[in-house]
Amino acid sequence: MDIFRLFGYAIEPQRTVSDEDFVDPEGGSLPIRAQLRSALSKSLKVAEDSGLMTQVTLDVDQGADGHRSSLVRNAVIDLAFRRGAASERGALELARQLSRAMDYRSRDCLFLCAAYREGEKRQVALWIFPQDEAFRFSVGGAQGPDIDLLTEIFSRTSALRKMALFEGREISTNFLDGRVLDFQVGRADDVADLWIRRFLKARTTITPAAGTKLLADALKKTSRADIPPEERKQVLTAAIAVNNMQRQSWSLEQVAHEFLAGKAKEIFLAAAENDEARSAVFRLDRPALARRLNTRTFQLPEDVLVSAPINEVGDDKVVEVIDDTDGERIRIEAQIVEERLASRNA
Amino acid sequence: MPELAELYEKRLPLLQRVASSLEAELIDHFTGVPRIDRISFRTKGVRSFLGKAEREKDPYEFPLAQIEDQIAGRIIVLFSADVEPTVARLCEIFTSVEQDHHRPTKYNEFDYESHHSVHVLPAHHKPSGWAELEDMPNTFEMQVRTLFQHAYAEPQHDLGYKSEEPIDDEIKRELAWIAAGCWGGDQALERVRTLVAKAG
């Protein structure tokens, strides 16, 4: 798609500022110069290829006329489909919303809204680039080498940059969801909520319930696969660690990157239908994960199966796993509480 | 609209895969939840899709992208008190963009009743090939209703709503009688459930 509109605003945090004292962010329509067009296009491609984009759904209200409305949806549609002042009003509305979402913990930033078109379809990319400092070093001057500190710059590659991408036609079924790049998603504090919750007023489309099921299914599938014992241990470690770590949100990519290697990693990632699902971040539902991965099953010779609650396997637990020269063995010595006959499922 | 029919037929296998995948996910999430009679999904047939796309009133400009029940699911519950918690659970699984409880507006009317919602299709249900087709649906529809609401809705849908001729008043009266009976059935079941719970 071709970029045809660009707006930029300097955003200061005003989350705690009253309505009377609120100051509109400064900025407006920007010329689209070749260098900037190329830089934005590169940033967009890097984001889309990053494997870190997350699908989000906007919180919309349903009007009596059936119109699905949210501040962000309406403003993005105005920006992309209206002309002149109406389009700029959409961009300013987004800049105001961002300023209201940011508090003193956020750095001042540059907010860019870029609109792209192809036929009747539009794409809107919303970016924030945090303010940064940089050195300009020169050696060829008359006074010899020199250095300047540049403070009025915004970093295009900062890990604090964020992006949201919306695409579609001006119809009620489009611009309801988008894709987001935010490296801070997953942090345990509410800084992570800035971009998705407070600014976009959105939720991750893969809900905690659905994401946790996706993760548990992928871990189970991997643990059942024919993988080397050390990789099987990685799967087990992942299952336990993800549930015990402070981090709130995960994607399958992040779990794979953090805990798995080799064939296990491959099988785990292949459990998801597509790249978007692999990179989508979701908030973990810990009790649900504990319920879904609550049993360890050991296959022994002569068709013997031992099944135990995951927390009862380990040193000084009912079931001990011992590393031996011939591989792993288990040891159980416990009182039989009850015994029954049963048929085993195929 | 031969071209539209062709385009819809081409996407149908993918829609069917998504419908099966959504159904499996919902069944999994509702396993162990009491008083769920059934969970099922279907894809819209070609004729039905074309019928809707060609409607005269408020026509669709981009039917392939606008018609939201290309994939639709239904949860049938035993009691009317089960509808609300079921909808809440459903919205914990799929993000929702529309909620609407269909029911007659006047106190002395009896007609179709069901909870309808629209949800965004999550990335993990989009099969390979999905992104390659133009204007794939972004959303899917869900209905949550009681057994009695279903008992009225299904035959009524065939006999009334789908009829090409205007419906005779006498038939409308019969349909309203059935709807009233079903409404009464739900009310009575709810009272019995409360009495049994108190007695137990």
**Count of domains of chain A:** 3
CATH superfamily of chain B: Beta Polymerase, domain 2
Low-confidence spans of chain B: pLDDT under 50, at least 5 residues?
none
How does the overall form of chain B come out from the CA principal axes? flat
- Kindly name the structural category of chain A: alpha+beta
Q: Bin the strand percentage of chain A.
A: 25-35%
- Encode the helix/strand succession of chain A as letters: EEHEEEHHEEEEEHEHHEHHHEHEEEE
| Helical content of chain A (DSSP H or I, runs of 4+) | 25-40%
- What sort of overall outline of chain A do the alpha carbons produce when their principal axes are compared? elongated
Strand order of the largest sheet of chain B: 1-2-5-4-3
Q: What are the segments of chain A in which pLDDT stays under 50 over at least 5 consecutive residues?
A: none
- Spatial separation of the terminal alpha carbons of chain A: 53 Å
Rg for CA atoms of chain B: 19 Å
Structural class of chain B: alpha+beta
Topology of chain B as a string of helices (H) and strands (E)? HEHHEHEEEHH
Tell me, rounded to a whole number, the average pLDDT of chain A.
Answer: 89
CATH class label of chain B: Alpha Beta
Largest sheet of chain B: 5 strands, mixed
Overall mean pLDDT of chain B stands at 92
**Terminal Cα separation of chain B, in Å?**
60 Å
What can you tell me about this protein's structure?
The complex is a heterodimer of chains A (346) and B (200). Chain A has 346 residues and is of the alpha+beta class. Chain A is 33% helix and 30% strand. Chain A is built from ten helices and 17 strands. In chain A, strands 1, 2, 3, 6, 7, 8, 9, 10 and 11 form a nine-stranded antiparallel sheet that branches. Chain A has a two-stranded antiparallel sheet with strand order 4-5. Chain A has a two-stranded antiparallel sheet with strand order 12-13. In chain A, a hairpin with an 8-residue loop joins β9 (162-168) and β10 (177-182). Chain A starts with a strand and ends in a 14-residue tail after the last strand. In chain A, 36% of the residues are buried. Chain B starts with a helix and ends with a helix. Chain B has one domain (2-199): Beta Polymerase, domain 2. Chain B is α+β, with helices and mostly antiparallel strands and 200 residues long. Chain B has helices spanning 2-30, 46-53, 63-66, 83-93, 147-161, 169-199, and strands spanning 36-43, 71-77, 96-102, 114-120, 139-146. The longest helix of chain B is centred in the last third of the chain and has 31 residues, at 169-199. Chain B has a five-stranded mixed sheet with strand order 1-2-5-4-3, sandwiched between helices. Chain A binds chain B through residues 55, 57-58, 60, 62, 68, 168-169, 171-174, 176-177, 203, 205-210, 213-214, 272-274, 276-277, 280, and chain B through 25, 28-29, 61-62, 65-66, 68, 92-95, 97-100, 120, 122-128, 130-131, 137-139.
